[in-house]
């Protein structure tokens, strides 16, 4: 173990183990060093299987002590560049808290939620606290999240704060203190549940022996509170979860919570305002929305009244909120409660508003708008944490870690606008045992706890999300917390006796006891964005699968011909087909290209258009956008595919054996995805769109392959070997051999792969498949353009004569090439027609005015 910290979560001052840890220690006694490493690997594998990620915001690397760039600080949530998602990191060892200690912490958290709720109601209602100077006006009026358009609205002032989170740490005496409040759109509850699921699988015996309080009741209460928050006149409310999108920092958390609650996950473009109400766009109609659980910051929620450059929210939403036709949770403008300038005033406010003392104190905080506090902060800059009152103005910093230049710059900023900054004491955090390779070390702990509205008060999560850091590390930067995320821990609240799960009873409009029964509407599968993502999910899956089949068939021919690439011979034709079909130009069209490096690139290079890796990356991105529509098995399959590719990438000296093995593993995963879609997905509009995407892509791939390989006349032995490879790549070789017992011929291949309506790999079959899928979509007219195009193509394929098409003149099969080329063009036109008919996004929002370079409006 490392040096003794001020407070140890595991061991008391007298050397005894703290209450609750005994069951974990008993289990750990049986762990060998290798078992600890194995547990870490299993945790990482399970998180990878579920694609649990965290995406650091580019703005998270900017501190309040950085040099000004002339453009002002970026607003919270501003997309300043795409960042690759990072794997979520979880320690196998949980943080354990005794339920008797937790009871006091829980009471303090609930009281804090009630206090913040009362402050929120006053700030947007009577504003007595400001008028009587119980809260300094400068700290509120200059806060980015104080939304003046909502002040005085009865609907806003009367709506209760839905959910809060508090980041907590212990001081040297073991007392919990609040470091910061989270009231904007608290994140992390989904990660907490995911942590619990993973740890319960990695350490099942220890998990089941512990008298552990469960997390499920919190989400039951959350779901019931969302339903009950709907406008009073609504009998059967529709609830949606609003996300900034797949590039959001906590995109996984948002999608996981939406799936867990059973409510659709939407983006701003999926909603619109009409006649004073919020509506969800579905195929051919609009459906009313009554409750929005937002994960978008308030200032981005309405481009009409707030940020005109926002594309994350819903234009006109503020008026709907004022009229009370929709409930937005957490309340718009609730981010003002995250203001650290409020912390010094909370004890007095608690006495005034609630009539009793504050149970859960905050870390000592000095608001620089007060002259005495300003002097204290500036005189002790080396020993405090400096925070801006608005989160969008840069991240908090540790004064002790600043350079001389940074300290001077920050001091100047504070003197220029003291009311925008606070100083806080440096909390010497407690530590908990944490696994590191094959040993246990001490790491400092911050706990995020959650409370959700429940009837007249709040219900706390019996657990939470813990994060650990090494505060003694010399590599620590100026930030209080690491911008790239930290190692997480599950939080166990344990009792001395077995814990009975509490019964959650619905209140208000629901009126009867409820289990955890999701209420997913099929309408979400008709949202144009969702239909588009599922459509491209199908297309990219089929594109990657078909390219892999062709590459494997070509590799087989290469082995059979001893890598003899002779111009015009079978291997040469197939290699060029790989390039043309995948569009990875110049590829094998370059006579100097080496075969193995090119095949590796086609499989592994994500940044090269047309590769397997690029298709898989696009597939994964499409899946992220509709995570709540897909089975969890999808992520397990995609994780296994990534492991296969990573193993190949780690072996640059492979001579072809691992390349083939990785290709087969990826192909097996793609076949598993197809099986999951077939067996696990409900036949709703989303499924039909996914299936039509697969069918269209398969038809395009077949046509592209045939154009390159059979439109020229070649020697008989070349034709035979090449056609066998084409049929193998099209997964029709067994059928062909059974049906056509003589030597393969071009007209037979045309009949089987283009005209045969009963071959699941033929173009004719795909046209029937797409037509069936589109006819199953709601509001599809028989005369719609996609169906007209399909009917025309189907008729042309039906009357085609394979013998006539296969006739050659001067070494070319010109009729066949024209026939295949025309079908390709029509299929691309069909894709555009499907997009226009079913996936058309709303017009891009534009501000009503623009600002020129001089700052004048035009």
Helix-strand blueprint:
Blueprint: H1 22-29, H2 33-49, E1 53-54, E2 86-87, E3 95-98, H3 99-123, H4 128-131, H5 137-141, H6 154-157, E4 163-170, E5 176-182, H7 189-202, H8 204-209, H9 216-228, E6 239-243, H10 251-261, E7 265-267, E8 271-274, E9 277-282, E10 285-289, E11 291-294, H11 317-323, E12 327-329, H12 346-354, E13 365-367, H13 371-379, E14 384-388, E15 397-398, H14 404-416, E16 421-425, E17 431-436, E18 439-454, E19 457-460, E20 465-469, E21 487-494, H15 528-560, H16 570-582, H17 595-604, H18 612-625, H19 633-649, H20 657-680, H21 685-709, H22 716-729, H23 733-739, H24 746-755, H25 763-775, H26 785-798, H27 802-806, H28 814-838
Parallel strand pairs: 3-21, 6-7, 6-11, 11-12
Antiparallel strand pairs: 1-2, 4-5, 4-18, 8-9, 9-10, 13-16, 14-15, 14-16, 17-18, 18-19, 18-20, 20-21
Helix pairs in contact: 2-7, 2-19, 3-12, 7-10, 15-16, 15-18, 15-20, 15-21, 15-22, 16-21, 16-22, 19-20, 21-25, 21-28, 25-26, 26-28
Characterization of the model:
The protein is of the alpha+beta class. Helix content is 43%, strand content 12%. The chain has 28 helices and 21 strands. Strands 3, 4, 5, 17, 18, 19, 20 and 21 form an 8-stranded mixed sheet that branches. Helix 3 crosses helix 12, helix 15 packs antiparallel against helix 18 and helix 19 runs antiparallel to helix 20 (657-680). It is globular, with a radius of gyration of 31 Å. It starts with 21 loop residues before the first helix and ends in a 20-residue tail after the last helix. Mean pLDDT is 88; it is low at 70-80, 503-521 and 851-858.
